[in-house]
Every structure is written in structure tokens, then in C-alpha cells.
């Protein structure tokens, strides 16, 4: 199947339903090509597969889809110039229909491997006619009806009604009968017979007739050949007296090869092909000589050895015989030589000789141009595949930052503020690490980053497991929500499941400074929020409202390895969640509140240690090209330090210092001196509407002796009080 039909299908969907629908249908069918080359052959199953999925996605019937596709075909082929071909096929609509079977014969020059259908007209009247449609393909009945109806309207200005009368399978061929109703007054005009006075003209000698038509065949009602043209006598002289059906197969039209059937199909072009290959002794010699002299290549198509004839069947009333006025179909000189023919064997009165010679001269250039076009098309398809892959990766990255439904609205040009939406009730969770400031004072900054990365990697996996949405991380604080951006009536249960899993999973992460496992505190509250994107730079999906602050207070007033929930969340939980009443507590900005401890859930299996280990191993595999054996950390201190040193502007000076005075301990080079005033400004920039208080991290920075601003080895560490995410340093190992 040529890509012309597939491109017609895709363009029809894009024109009527939009490109988004076509992309959706294409991806559902796993079709990689975003477009199709009209001259390239594709699998026969592609159109049925795409059409079936399109009908499901678009919610329309088979008749609606294929009829609309057939109507659009007339508009679609206009960009390739075929509309001009359609417009000159007949003076009237009846002429077009009677010559419809011949249309595909003209197109075979551009589409030689086309499996064309066959059309036969009968029972013509002033009100319409009956058309028989035969095809080796199934599923294109309504497509054909739409094409014929649109041609009648577009080119002849006639409205046509098409009724499907009969549909049946005859062996492997689909036979469909259409009844066409339209204004066919041209039929009456064509029945007027023009009488000519031919008495003064002498009779034509039969020998002259066979010389004018050198490839003609005359046969009777018994299908036995009575005579043949001069050129056929040179290559198949034994044909005379034999049945034509024993020597030739009828390729087109798709009818039985019988005398009476042929008489009723006078308007059709008949294509015959020899049953056996035609190879004369002269042809063999010429073929061998040509191969040795040129490229020594076998003909690409074995059918080149067969003789193809195409022409008209004319009933000779005086003879009571049918005369087939055929012309050989020769794609190139090789075919001519293989059948033992020469240029002077072709008819002189038509363009057979000119077409053969001119076609041979241009064939090489056309083949080269076609090869170049196919290469360009292939490169274009490869580029489109790469573009689709990059778009997919970009979408995945975007959807990790912004919810899909919100991102799609922004793509359509909506203002970010318009994406904000009110949610009557959602559940918000906050968590942070207990004694995080003290831990940071005992380890290096890169160890802090590595520890947080391992913890957040586990929590990110748990969000997918429990179906909650990660909002953001601020320092050691982790924030998730359920019920937004997608509403879920079980939002409180999902968030509490997440909280229980977080408490279980954190026991597998160790404090590098002490060796004991990390401890977190968790707080959950349920209430109304406004969610959306604000601002123009660095868009993020944020939550706003008193419920967010209350959830943050639940976390700040929680205890180590405890889950602190509000009364609003407690009321939404079913009885399978076991809680313990904490009582009335004073919450900053809220006053006295009645809160609870979430203890467990009936029937819940604890998060296994092995499951957490798998998450950690997968995290390392994704972030490090080689296996890492450094505890739980997916990013090692040495790896990041070496990379930072290689990219550091102070690299050359560090190397000089290293050569002058080798030091075995890591060196931290601070490009800017951080003063208490700078630290205070950094803290003031930290968001306070979402998180309770800024977290200061105490870092110990040791400078080597002799370095600018350095101190003797026995001097105490220099404390730097700034938030972790504001620290910028360059590290190296000398």
C-alpha cells in the first residue's frame, strides 16, 4: 500500500479533528512515522489499524470515518496536481464513471506496484447507473463512495446519491454493487447516432490493418486466435489457432475472460500478460551481451520476461470477431530486448517509439533523483523520530515539575494565574529531620547533600507507590499533598499511608556522624487550599492557604518518629487507622488545637527493609555510572569533589599549592567571604509562608596552613551560619 492513502488518512484527521488527535492516534497504534512518503510502500495493515483506533478515539462509526476521508481525498490530492487529472477524465459525469476503471491505469506510471480496484458500469439511464466495484482489499467501500460523491459535486456540480446494493466475496475478491442516482441527461445525448456516407470509401485490406496495429489479436467466440499483428508474428507465431486464454491472462479489468463478457465492457482498457515468459534466441543473445557490456545485473523484476499488452477490445461486426488493438508495455530497453523486440517493431503512428527512447534517456536521471529524494525522506523521518523522543523526554521532565493538566493549559497560552484552582479539602504532609542542624555541623556539606539525596530518593518512590503529589523540598523539609491537582475522596488515607511508609523507610538511613538511623517528624492536616502557578520565572506548582500553615505547625510540634495529625484529618480517616489522642496543645498562630498521634493501620504490612534497599540500589544505578560501595549515598564525596575541582576557576592555583605543600585532607575554597550580615540576608529570603522557620546549618570549614585567611592546624573550626541551600563552595583533593 502506497503512502498516498496513509497521508490522506493523517491529513484528514488533522484537518477535521486537529493535530492533537492525530498524535494521540499515532502513539496508541505505535506508529513511529509522523508523516508518510506518498511514493513509498507500507504494510497493508496500517490503514485498518489506524482507522480502527481513530474511530475509537474520535467516537464515530466506520461509515462516517471512511466516507469523510473519501470526501477529503479530492481536496488532498490537489496539492500533488491530481485534481487536474480528475477534472479532464470526462466531459460529463457519465464519461468519468465509464472511464473510472482506466484512471488507475494512468496512475500506474507513478505507482507501478499499485493494487488497483476495478470499476464496471452498466444499466445506464437518464437517472443514473449501476457500478460494480471489485477489489482485493476490504474495508474501502465507504471510502470509495465518498470519493465518487465528492468528484460529482466538485467537478461536475451534481449532487449524487449512492446506495450500497450488494456486497459479497468471490474467492479473494470483494464485489460490491452501487446504485448511483444523479442527473444523467448526457446519456440521452450520447445515444444520437452520427451517420456518415462511407460508400465512396474502399474496403481496407486486412494486411494493411495488421501492419498498422502490429500487436493486434483477432479471436472468435470460441476464443481461438484467427490472426495476429506483424510484430507478434515475429515472437509468438505459434499463437494462431490456439485459444487466447492458453497464452494470455486477463489482468484488467477484473472480469472473466469470455467472449460475451468482453462485448459488454467496450469502455474498459484491457491488459493482457503472457502466461509463460517470452524469450527468443535473439533476445537471449542481446540480453547476455547487454549484461556483459554494462552492469552484469539481472532484471529487477522477473515479469520483465513476460509480454505485457494494453489496449482496446473492438467488435468487428463484418467479421463476427473481436479485434484486440494492443500496445506493448515496456518499462525500459531491457524488457524490449528480453522479449526479442526492436524499436521498429513498435507502432509508428503513435508515440510508442518516442516514449521508449525518451523514457530510457530520462530513466537514469529520474532514478537518481528518486534515490536522493528517498534518502532525504529517510533522514527527515529519522530527524522526526529524534524530535519525538526529545519531546517525550521534555514532557517527562516538565511533568515532574508541573502537573500534566496544568502544564497542558500553560502550553495553550493560558496565563499562569488562570491555572490557580480552589480545592475544598485536601490533605497536606510536612516532614523534617530531627536535629538536622547538629548533624550538619558534624559532617561535610557534600555528605549533607548525599544524605538528603538518598532520603528524598526513597520518599519520591513512596509518593508514586501511594499516589500522592510531591510539592517541594525546602532544606530538610519534605512536602506532599493528596486531593490536588487531581481530586481524590480518599486523600487523607493516601497521605497517612505515605506518612507510615516514610517513618518505616527512614530507619534504613544512617547518620554518617553517629552511625544511628535518621529520625524524622511528620505532620498532617486536611483543609481547603488554593493551588496553582504564580509568577513568570521558575514556575512551580504551589499551595496557598491557612491549611498549609496548619500542616507545617503539625510537623513542627510533632516528636521524633511520630506522625502528628489534626482533628480535620482524624475525622476523614476510617476506623482501620489507629490513632492516639494527644490532647489540647498550643499552636503558634492558631491557639489551642486538639490533635492526635497516628499509630498504625489495620492490615498494613510494614515497609520491608529489602524494599528500601532496592530503592537505594536503583537510585545509585541511575545517578552513578559505576557501582558505589559507600553506604547509602548515591553521590559520593570524592566524585563530586573531583568534578568540582576540575571545573574550578581556582584549579591552577590549587595545583600550585598542592605541589608546594601536599596536604592529604580535603580543602574547601570559599570564593566569597560569608559574613553574619550575609547569612541574615540569606535567611530573610527563605520562604516562610510554607515552612515554619528557617533552618541554619553549622558547617565546619578547615583551611590549610599558609592559605589566604588560613589559621594554624590547631585553631578551632570557623562556624558559618547560613542555610544549606545558599552554600556555594569548590572542593578538591590535593
Automatic annotation (TrEMBL):
Feature: compositional bias, Pro residues: 705-720
Cellular compartments per GO CC: guanylate cyclase complex, soluble
Family of this protein: Belongs to the adenylyl cyclase class-4/guanylyl cyclase family.
EC number: 4.6.1.2
CDD domains referenced in this protein's UniProt entry, alphabetically: CHD
Enzyme class: lyase
Matches recorded under Pfam families: Guanylate_cyc, HNOB, HNOBA
Organism: Cloeon dipterum
Protein name: guanylate cyclase
Entry-linked InterPro entries: A/G_cyclase (IPR001054), A/G_cyclase_CS (IPR018297), H-NOX_domain_sf (IPR038158), Heme_NO-bd (IPR011644), HNOB_dom_associated (IPR011645), HNOB_dom_associated_sf (IPR042463), NO_sig/Golgi_transp_ligand-bd (IPR024096), Nucleotide_cyclase (IPR029787)
Compartment(s): Cytoplasm
GO molecular function: GTP binding; guanylate cyclase activity; heme binding; nitric oxide binding; oxygen sensor activity
Principal place of residence: cytoplasm
Keywords recorded for this protein, A-Z: cGMP biosynthesis, Coiled coil, Cytoplasm, GTP-binding, Lyase, Nucleotide-binding
Domain Guanylate cyclase: 427-555
Gene Ontology annotations of biological process type: nitric oxide-cGMP-mediated signaling; response to oxygen levels
Coiled coil: 363-397
Amino acid at each position: 500500500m502506497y503512502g498516498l492513502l496513509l497521508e490522506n488518512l493523517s491529513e484528514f484527521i488533522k484537518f477535521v479533528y486537529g493535530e492533537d488527535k492525530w498524535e494521540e492516534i499515532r502513539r496508541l497504534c505505535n506508529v513511529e512515522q509522523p508523516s508518510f512518503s506518498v511514493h513509498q510502500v507500507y504494510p497493508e495493515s496500517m490503514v485498518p489499524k489506524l482507522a480502527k483506533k481513530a474511530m475509537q478515539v474520535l467516537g464515530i462509526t466506520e461509515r462516517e470515518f471512511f466516507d469523510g476521508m473519501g470526501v477529503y481525498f479530492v481536496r488532498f490530492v490537489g496539492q500533488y496536481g491530481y485534481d487536474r487529472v480528475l477534472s479532464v477524465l470526462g466531459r460529463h459525469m457519465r464519461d468519468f464513471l465509464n472511464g473510472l476503471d482506466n484512471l488507475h491505469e494512468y496512475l500506474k506510471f507513478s505507482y507501478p506496484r499499485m493494487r488497483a480496484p476495478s470499476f464496471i458500469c452498466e444499466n445506464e439511464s437518464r437517472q443514473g447507473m449501476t457500478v460494480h466495484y471489485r477489489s482485493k482489499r476490504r474495508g474501502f467501500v465507504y471510502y470509495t463512495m465518498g470519493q465518487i460523491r465528492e468528484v460529482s459535486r466538485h467537478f461536475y456540480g451534481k449532487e449524487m446519491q449512492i446506495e450500497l446494493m450488494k456486497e459479497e466475496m468471490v474467492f479473494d475478491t470483494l464485489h460490491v454493487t452501487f446504485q448511483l442516482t444523479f442527473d444523467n441527461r448526457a446519456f440521452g445525448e450520447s445515444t444520437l447516432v452520427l451517420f456518415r456516407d462511407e460508400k465512396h470509401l474502399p474496403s481496407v485490406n486486412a494486411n494493411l490493418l495488421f501492419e498498422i496495429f502490429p500487436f493486434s489479436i483477432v479471436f472468435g467466440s470460441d476464443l481461438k486466435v484467427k490472426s495476429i499483428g506483424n510484430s507478434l508474428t515475429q515472437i509468438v507465431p505459434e499463437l494462431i489457432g490456439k485459444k487466447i486464454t492458453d497464452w494470455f491472462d486477463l489482468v484488467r479489468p477484473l472480469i472473466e475472460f469470455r467472449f460475451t463478457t468482453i462485448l459488454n465492457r467496450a469502455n474498459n482498457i484491457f491488459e493482457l500478460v503472457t502466461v509463460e515468459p517470452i524469450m527468443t534466441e535473439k533476445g537471449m543473445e542481446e540480453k547476455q551481451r547487454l549484461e556483459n557490456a554494462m552492469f552484469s545485473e539481472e532484471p529487477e523484476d522477473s515479469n520483465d520476461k513476460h509480454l505485457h499488452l494494453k489496449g482496446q477490445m473492438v467488435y468487428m461486426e463484418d467479421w463476427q470477431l473481436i479485434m484486440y488493438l494492443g500496445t506493448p508495455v515496456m518499462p525500459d530497453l531491457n524488457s524490449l530486448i528480453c522479449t526479442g523486440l526492436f524499436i521498429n517493431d513498435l507502432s509508428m503512428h503513435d508515440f510508442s517509439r518516442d516514449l521508449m527512447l525518451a523514457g530510457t534517456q530520462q530513466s537514469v536521471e529520474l532514478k537518481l533523483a528518486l534515490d536522493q529524494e528517498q534518502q532525504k525522506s529517510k533522514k527527515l523521518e529519522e530527524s522526526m523520530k529524534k524530535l519525538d523522543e526529545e519531546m517525550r523526554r521534555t514532557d517527562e521532565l516538565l511533568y515532574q515539575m508541573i502537573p500534566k493538566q496544568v502544564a497542558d493549559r500553560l502550553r495553550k497560552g493560558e496565563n499562569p494565574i488562570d491555572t490557580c484552582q480552589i480545592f475544598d479539602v485536601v490533605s497536606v504532609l510536612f516532614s523534617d529531620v530531627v536535629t538536622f542542624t547538629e548533624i550538619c555541623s558534624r559532617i561535610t556539606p557534600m555528605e549533607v547533600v548525599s544524605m538528603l539525596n538518598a532520603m528524598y530518593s526513597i520518599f519520591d518512590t513512596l509518593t508514586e507507590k501511594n499516589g500522592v503529589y510531591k510539592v517541594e523540598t525546602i532544606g530538610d523539609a519534605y512536602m506532599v499533598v493528596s486531593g490536588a491537582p487531581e481530586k481524590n475522596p480518599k486523600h487523607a488515607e493516601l497521605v497517612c499511608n505515605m506518612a507510615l511508609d516514610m517513618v518505616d523507610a527512614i530507619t534504613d538511613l544512617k547518620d554518617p556522624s553517629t552511625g544511628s538511623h535518621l529520625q524524622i517528624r511528620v505532620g498532617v492536616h486536611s483543609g481547603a487550599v488554593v493551588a496553582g502557578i504564580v509568577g513568570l520565572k521558575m514556575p512551580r506548582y504551589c499551595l496557598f492557604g491557612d491549611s498549609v500553615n496548619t500542616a507545617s505547625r503539625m510537623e513542627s510540634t510533632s516528636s521524633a518518629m511520630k506522625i502528628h495529625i489534626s482533628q480535620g484529618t482524624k475525622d476523614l480517616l476510617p476506623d482501620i487507622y489507629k490513632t492516639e489522642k494527644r490532647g489540647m496543645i498550643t499552636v503558634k498562630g492558631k491557639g489551642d488545637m486538639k490533635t492526635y498521634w497516628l499509630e498504625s493501620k489495620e492490615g498494613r504490612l510494614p515497609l520491608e527493609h529489602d524494599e528500601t534497599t532496592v530503592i537505594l540500589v536503583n537510585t545509585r544505578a541511575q545517578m552513578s555510572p559505576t557501582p558505589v560501595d559507600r553506604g547509602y549515598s548515591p553521590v559520593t564525596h570524592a566524585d563530586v569533589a573531583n568534578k568540582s575541582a576540575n571545573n574550578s576557576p581556582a584549579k591552577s592555583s590549587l595545583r600550585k599549592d598542592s605541589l608546594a605543600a601536599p596536604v592529604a585532607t580535603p580543602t574547601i575554597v570559599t570564593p566569597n567571604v560569608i559574613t553574619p550580615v550575609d547569612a541574615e540576608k540569606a535567611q530573610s529570603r527563605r520562604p516562610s509562608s510554607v515552612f515554619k522557620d528557617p533552618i541554619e546549618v553549622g558547617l565546619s570549614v578547615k583551611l590549610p596552613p599558609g592559605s589566604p585567611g588560613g589559621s594554624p592546624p590547631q585553631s578551632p573550626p570557623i562556624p558559618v551560619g547560613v542555610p544549606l541551600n545558599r552554600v556555594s563552595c569548590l572542593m578538591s583533593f590535593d
